[in-house]
Design goal:
alpha+beta; 5 strands; elongated; 125 residues; 2 helices; 23% helix
């Protein structure tokens, strides 16, 4: 009986079947693992966007309250400060006033724990 020579890098049918069985067993074990998922870190109701630093509740307030909402352009956002009674965030922005001229304002917004805008006040520039 002549021994069969194998070319380097070629697997026999037996090796392929054993490899597939091992991979299937590993997938079955991982899929049947009953451990609960890791708890997710709770996110604050009010937070800065990772993309541009904005705060969506304040942006929504601007869209509802500016004379020309489409003219709103944020220049700078502060980090959201969490307080016992809610959140504070400062935004410096440019927008059109009632006469159609652009003005730059710097305001601090107060938001309640649910993220509703309670009020704002101007900050000296």
């Amino acid at each position: 009986m002549k021994s069969q020579e194998r070319k380097p890098g070629h697997l026999s049918a037996k090796e392929i079947i054993l490899g597939l069985a091992a991979a299937g067993a590993a997938l079955w074990y991982l899929a049947s693992n009953d451990s609960p998922p890791a708890p997710k870190e709770p996110q604050a109701v009010v937070s800065n966007s990772a993309w541009d630093g904005s705060v969506h509740q304040v942006e929504r307030w601007f869209k509802q309250n500016l004379n020309d909402p489409d003219s709103f352009e944020a220049i700078e956002w502060s980090k959201v400060a969490e307080r016992d009674d809610g959140f504070l965030v400062r935004v410096k922005y440019r927008a059109k006033n009632s006469l159609g001229g652009y003005v730059v304002e710097n305001q601090v917004f107060k938001l309640d724990p649910q993220g509703n805008v309670l009020g704002m006040h101007k900050v000296a520039q």
